[in-house]
Structure prediction request, 379 residues.
Amino acid sequence: MNACTYAARLLVFALIICAVASAGLAQTVVVRPNEMGNWVLAARQGTGAAAPVGEFLTLDGSPAGEGACHIETFYSDTDPLSKIYLGTNDHSGVLLSSITSLKYSTYVIYRGYGGEGSPDGQPPMIELITDSGSAAGVDYPQQRRFVYKPWGQYGENAAKIALNTWQEWDLMASDGCWNVVNDGRAAYSGNWDWLKNLYRPGTMKIATPVVGDYVDSYDAEWRLANQSGTGLSIKIGSGKAFERQDDGHHNYWWKESASIDGYVDKLTIGISGVETTYDLEPPVIRTVVIRGANTQQAIINDAKQNFKFTVFGEVIDTDYYSFVTLDDGSNRTVKVLAANLVVAPGTYVRATGVLDNQTDPPSLTSTVEQIEILADPQL
Prediction:
């Protein structure tokens, strides 16, 4: 083997090692309503016309996986405002100076206020709770609340406003808009570099608040409060309906969170170059095989809320369009409902769907894609 060949092989080997190492520096964590891990979803109706909606749904075109979290608030213009939070304390204690990436994606269907100013509606925002850093061996635990506003300070940045499309936000971008809340300073808005250097540069950390509300006072340990008790949160919900800003402005902040309908997904945080992406997904619905005779058991009343069911048997009745009745030999038939279902009597099928055992006979709502022909006497 000549020197050139040896060097080339070494280079290829090095590239492979680098690729494997890089792959190990990123992970995706799937968050589902039945697999929340260290995530918390919390809401307060307040004076809202209805309770805020927070649900994990399948959604075509989502930036990660097959779904996203749907967040919706309704009209609320007086305190206590309607609020909804989805957050985690996975990164509490992390130095802001060690965060190397911070991104998430939003999709806004509707905002109740737009083009009116002072302020207008925002997409789901990010709330970050930090401490005040440390100096000369002294910790300053007083917590600070920062809010990232994707569409600008007052939801008025026309260059960034878009409805019915996914938008990815780089929270560390030079043109990003972060607010520090109730800090007592006139310059209360800036980008990420401004935020992480606002108090004691290089020492500020993500902190864990207590469960409560924006209007709650500091506790004995100088901790703030929010609905989820989490330091890194996705939220819709202003702190107060009307509040004087520290620069002297008086604003109707309820407008930025009243009647917002949208989605959020793919929150990524990188710490010292190691990225974690949180993929918000609908629940996994497991499937259980069941005989017709067992559909009346008491345990099925609870199980049907969390499982799909599979039944099988011979078709003994059909309208050749919307249903078939199956006999599995257990002395209890099951009626399978599915649009455009053309199956002849005598055919053996297996069907999966949602069970309703309160009908007579029990019924299973399915689709033609979830029905398999096991044996067809006409073939």
In short: Residues 16-23 have pLDDT under 50 and may be disordered. Residues 26-280 form one domain. Residues 3-23 form the longest helix (21 residues).
